[in-house]
């Protein structure tokens, strides 16, 4: 499979560069979807467009058998590219700084490889919008969540996906059981105070800034003293806004932050502790604090059985020494919604070339080693074939 993929390298790279030059934000991937459709038409694959807004789903069916999903996300980020590449983004303020352009190219490359492969069953190619967030979705759903709501996973025995990582060397891949990526939630806290003259009569006010400062410090104890040392969680306050003048006791302060956890019990416990800290801090200061925690992406969990097949495929395609044993990452990933609905495997593929660029995901200087693209396409195709054979024996 690797040799066949290497023969397609120029085509896969050309697709990637075209998409990279014309990045589109979530739920706006109209041009990207059109390019995907054009490739599917050229391959003779039936497809459906307009799924979850701008998503595209195609199926390659060869006789009766199980169904395996290959998923690729399509959206870019609101970042101004700073790479000086000849195929850099031509859209001001938008860049494929997470490498979803490579995911699309590898997904289409896998379709090319599977077209001539011998198997029984169906491979469903899911080109998904809006992985990076919900944007203006009326329900506040990301593309992956909306696709699951629309039933893209129905009838599938398994699903696979990968994410390029530009700080892992090309040719290496991490496929683990259990948690791969963290649950990613957001917290918004509004501290209600009472304004007063900060120099003449500060005692007449309730200082929202003082309370907010205490909250920022106390919230750090959620991880330090409420999460076990063998577990992992993050609570970070990223913004703080409040106050109107140097001589006025602040009437309100707004704080926002992120919460990351690796299992559902810890997730619920951390949420409860943050809410309790806000409630009791408010009581202590004789005021009120609004605490809103918005559930984002759940933990991305790999099924052990699917991952075992995926690791074997990686050894066959990339070699025995390709596998890495990386710990879970604390980033969020909306493939988690698919993984909740169907046994899944999410792999991390190295795309760091010999120049060893230090810039990672979401950097305006991120560089992807395109030599990794045929490797990813080959792994996706081989894993899909092996999963079809695996599940066929269980029918």
TrEMBL record:
Domain Peptidase M20 dimerisation as annotated: residue spans: 186-282
One Pfam entry name: Peptidase_M20
Annotated keywords: Hydrolase
Superkingdom, taxonomy of origin: Bacteria
Protein name: Amidohydrolase
Organism: Jeongeupia naejangsanensis
């Amino acid at each position: 499979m690797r040799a066949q993929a290497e023969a397609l390298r120029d085509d896969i790279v050309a697709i990637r560069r075209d998409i990279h030059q014309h990045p589109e934000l979530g739920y706006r991937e109209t041009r990207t979807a059109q390019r995907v459709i054009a490739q599917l038409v050229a391959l003779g694959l039936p497809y459906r467009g307009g799924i979850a807004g701008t998503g595209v789903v195609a199926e390659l069916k060869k006789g009766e058998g199980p169904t395996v999903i290959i998923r690729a996300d399509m959206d870019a980020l609101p970042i101004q590219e700073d790479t000086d590449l000849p195929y850099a983004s031509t859209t001001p303020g938008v860049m494929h700084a997470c490498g979803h352009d490579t995911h699309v190219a590898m997904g289409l490359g896998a379709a090319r490889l599977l077209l001539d492969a011998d198997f029984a069953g169906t491979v469903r190619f899911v080109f998904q919008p809006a992985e990076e967030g919900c944007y203006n979705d009326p329900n506040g759903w990301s593309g992956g969540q909306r696709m699951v709501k629309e039933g893209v996973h129905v009838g599938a025995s398994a699903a696979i996906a990968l994410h390029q990582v530009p700080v892992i060397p090309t040719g290496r891949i991490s496929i683990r059981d259990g948690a791969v990526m963290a649950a990613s939630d957001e917290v918004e806290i509004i501290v209600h105070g009472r304004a007063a003259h900060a120099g003449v009569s500060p005692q007449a006010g309730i200082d929202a800034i003082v309370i907010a400062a205490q909250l920022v410090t106390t919230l750090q104890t959620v991880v330090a003293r409420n999460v076990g040392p063998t577990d992992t969680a993050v609570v970070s306050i990223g913004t703080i806004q409040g106050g109107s003048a140097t001589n006025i006791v602040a009437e309100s302060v707004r704080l926002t932050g992120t919460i990351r956890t690796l299992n559902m019990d810890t997730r619920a416990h951390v949420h409860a502790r943050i809410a309790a800290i806000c409630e009791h801090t408010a009581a202590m200061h004789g005021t009120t604090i609004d605490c809103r925690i918005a559930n984002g992406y759940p933990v991305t969990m790999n099924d052990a059985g699917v991952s075992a097949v995926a690791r074997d495929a990686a050894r066959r395609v990339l070699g025995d020494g390709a596998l890495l044993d990386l710990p879970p990452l604390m980033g969020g990933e909306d493939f988690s919604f698919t993984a909740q609905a169907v046994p899944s495997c999410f792999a991390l593929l190295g795309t760091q070339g010999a120049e060893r660029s230090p810039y990672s995901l979401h950097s305006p200087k991120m560089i992807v080693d395109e030599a990794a693209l045929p490797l990813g396409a080959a792994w996706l195709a081989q894993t899909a074939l092996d999963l079809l054979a695996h599940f066929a024996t269980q029918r």
